[in-house]
Amino acid sequence: MSSSTSAPIPAAQTSPSFGSKLAAETTGTFLLVFGLIGTATFAATLDGGAASVGTLGACLALGFAVIIGAYAFGPISGGHFNPAVTLGLAAAGRLPWKDTLPYIIAQLIGGIIATTLIYLLALGGPDGFAKTATDSGFISNGFGDQSPGGFGLTSAIIIETIFTAIFIYVILGVTHTRAAAGFAPIAIGLTLTLMLMILIPIDNGSVNPARSIATAIYGGPDWLAQVWVFIIFPILGALIAGFSSRLIFDRVTSR
């Protein structure tokens, strides 16, 4: 056998299959949703007990999950784990539009698998644990009576649109060819941690339709009735950022 067929192909010359990319998006979204919602369900609501991590712990859990997922799966699929990110990157010219729907379906599947597993784990908890989790909304996003701090619809619309746009700008900036290599996952994870600290009192923190849909399914009718806000406005913010990104990142000036 000739060396041209027997020698291993250098990693730099290989490209992941589209199926591998979708599997990476499913797994990465599972990690993100399970990390956040699992921490919030099992460790952030223990009434200050020894194992309680509180709201800050939930914020850090999301940041850690994103950093880990981006390093692990980013080289395969780009590490979106969020329909808004996928659409924002497509609008910015970083992803073919034809890939967006399969990516989004994979992300929704990953998120729903995560909340389903969390629910099954909750059923094995102390008497009434699962019922309490679902009756309180299963860490779903909401406004008005469903807002942790009693914030209304307008507040949720504004914060989800603006924060998602900022998030997309951060992603585009730290993954730009002019950015320092290797630090993007850290910057992205820390950005989400910071945002969640502000978002949780307002609407429980979304900027990710896959996360919002996955929890609303188990939150029940009241939460499902409000999930449209956390689908439409993160996507709106992402598209605004994506379409306007060339004004910031890709303008070329002559000297």
Any key phrases for this structure?
channel activity, globular, MIP, 255 residues, disordered N terminus, Aquaporin_transptr, 11 helices, mainly alpha, membrane, Glycerol uptake facilitator protein, single chain
Task: Produce the secondary structure layout.
Blueprint: H1 3-6, H2 18-42, H3 54-77, H4 83-91, H5 100-123, H6 129-135, H7 153-174, H8 184-203, H9 209-219, H10 221-224, H11 229-244
Helix pairs in contact: 2-3, 2-5, 2-9, 3-8, 4-5, 4-7, 4-11, 5-6, 5-9, 7-8, 7-11, 9-11
Give the structure's gist in a few sentences.
The protein is mainly alpha-helical. It has helices at 3-6, 18-42, 54-77, 83-91, 100-123, 129-135, 153-174, 184-203, 209-219, 221-224, 229-244.
Please give a structural write-up.
The protein has 255 residues and is an all-alpha fold. It has a single domain (17-247), classed as Glycerol uptake facilitator protein, CATH 1.20.1080.10. Helix content is 65%, strand content 0%.
Distance between the termini: 55 Å
- Sum up the overall morphology in one term: globular
Order of helices and strands: HHHHHHHHHHH
* Count of separate structural domains: 1
**What is the tally of beta strands?**
0
Q: CATH H-level name... which superfamily?
A: Glycerol uptake facilitator protein
CATH architecture heading: Up-down Bundle
Quaternary arrangement of the chains shown? single chain
| Main β-sheet description | none
Structural class: mainly alpha
Q: Low-confidence parts, pLDDT < 50 over ≥5 residues?
A: 1-12
- Total count of helical runs of at least 4 residues: 11
Amount of beta strand: under 5%
